[in-house]
Specification:
Layout lengths: L1 H20 L4 H4 L3 E4 L2 E6 L7 H13 L7 E6 L14 E8 L7 H14 L4 E5 L7 H5 L18 E2 L2 E5 L6 H4 L4 H14 L5 E7 L6 H9 L4 E6 L3 H16 L4 E6 L4 E2 L6 E2 L6 H9 L3 E4 L4 H9 L3 H4 L4 H24 L16
Parallel strand pairs: 2-3, 4-8, 4-9, 5-7, 5-8, 9-10, 10-13
Antiparallel strand pairs: 1-2, 6-7, 11-12
Helix pairs in contact: 1-3, 4-13, 7-8
The structure holds adenosine-5'-triphosphate.
Length: 362
């Protein structure tokens, strides 16, 4: 009892500082702080490693200006596991589906850069290309010729590109073969790739869904233990209308939508810097407002994004200090936090936190 009386005020103080720092309520961050004598440990349930040093400095500064003092503060991250209706896949804590209603809005490009951005924020990440009919992830990762190795002819070791594990139908069958598969076969193939890949321990598996919101996407969203989704759209009315169908689809299968990413928000002239909203303005913002969803971020129509995708040299990895990479990391942090808050809201404070017990459905 004596111990508790002594540390509780510091705990409360740090929770208040943290809540202000992340624009949250104090109650939402209570579990993140633990005080042991004069040592403080802050464990964030989302990926934001690039901010840990800054956050630690902020906490120390606030403590200095307060009546409290501590010997040491550590800031680290530990991603929790979200609940799903379907049994989880071995070693995977959370599956995030990246979807778009309309094709060609930059869903795959965003999924790839987001995966690397999450990794740079300290998460263990993999990517699965579910675009059975037009797998583009192998091209974007620059390892089109790779194929998964199998020691037992049953399970696949996923190829690795730029430090990220990935699997795709594109590594397994010629494009023309998959292109004629009917819907159920495509969903079955995806489920099989997901289950038979020897994924290492992952905080997030990003799934690049095929474009659209038809039966195939719905079946995939139902059959796969998706923890949450992200919708990519352009600000154009046509894309927004389809993005709404995407939100409706995830609502139907009870998969939370973490937020929207507005891609190709504007074109910025490389010579004069003028911004031109080619695909209209404020589309993502108004859609996010309409559905009460966060707008996780916006990316410009930019030649570098296209060139890096075509060349198989993911922008976030090869240009990590660029403004664009920074934007992808901001989106990654926002998505990861949104997921952590949704996980916390959905489960009581007990057993599902921390590393999951690795198990496979019977
Ligand atoms: N912000 C951007 N700026 C410039 N080019 C982009 C941007 N985002 C994506 N692209 C380019 O647009 C094209 C389509 O992108 P991508 O394949 O990611 O879209 P998609 O929505 O996944 O398409 P599909 O629905 O056909 O799978 C690609 O050539 C890609 O390089």
């Amino acid at each position: 009892m004596f111990f508790r009386r002594k540390t509780q005020p510091i705990q409360d103080f740090l929770c208040k500082v943290l809540a202000e720092y992340f624009s949250l309520e104090s109650a939402e961050v209570t579990d993140w702080v633990s005080v042991d004598g004069a040592s403080v440990s802050v464990v964030l349930p989302f990926a934001c490693a690039t901010r840990h040093t800054q956050l630690k400095a902020h906490l120390l500064e606030q403590l200095q200006q307060s009546k409290f003092s501590v010997d040491d503060i550590t800031v680290s991250g530990q991603i929790h596991t979200g609940q799903t209706k379907q049994p989880p896949v071995k070693n995977i804590k959370n599956i995030i589906a990246v979807a778009s209603g309309k094709g060609g809005v930059g869903k795959s490009t965003t999924a790839v850069n987001l995966a690397y951005a999450l990794q740079q924020e300290g998460a263990r990440v993999g990517i699965l290309d579910a675009d059975i009919y037009g797998p583009s992830i192998p091209i974007m990762l620059g390892n089109e010729d790779a194929s998964p190795r199998s020691a037992d002819n049953k399970h696949m070791e996923p190829p690795e590109a730029w430090g990220l594990v990935a699997n795709s139908i594109g590594y397994l069958v010629p494009a023309e073969d998959a292109a004629v598969w009917r819907g159920p076969m495509a969903s079955r193939a995806l489920k099989q790739i997901l289950d038979e890949t020897l994924w290492p321990m992952l905080d997030y598996l990003i799934i690049d869904l095929p474009p659209g919101t038809g039966d195939i996407q719905l079946t995939m969203a139902q059959q796969i233990p998706v923890t949450a989704s992200i919708i990519v759209t352009t600000p154009q009315d046509l894309a927004l209308a389809d993005a709404q169908k995407g939100i409706a689809m995830f609502n139907k299968v009870d998969v939370p939508v973490l937020g929207l990413v507005e891609n190709m928000s504007y074109y910025q002239c490389v010579k004069c810097g003028h911004k031109d909203p080619i695909f209209s303005e404020y589309g993502g913002e108004s859609l996010a407002e309409k559905y009460g969803l966060p707008l996780l971020g916006a990316l410009p129509l930019n030649t570098q994004i296209r060139e890096h995708a075509d060349a198989g040299t993911p922008l976030v990895v090869t240009q990590p200090d660029s403004e664009l990479a920074n934007t992808y990391r901001e989106i990654a942090r926002a998505a990861s936090m949104s997921l952590a808050l949704s996980v916390a809201a959905a489960q009581d404070d007990s057993h599902l936190k921390g590393d999951p017990i690795s198990f496979k459905p019977a």
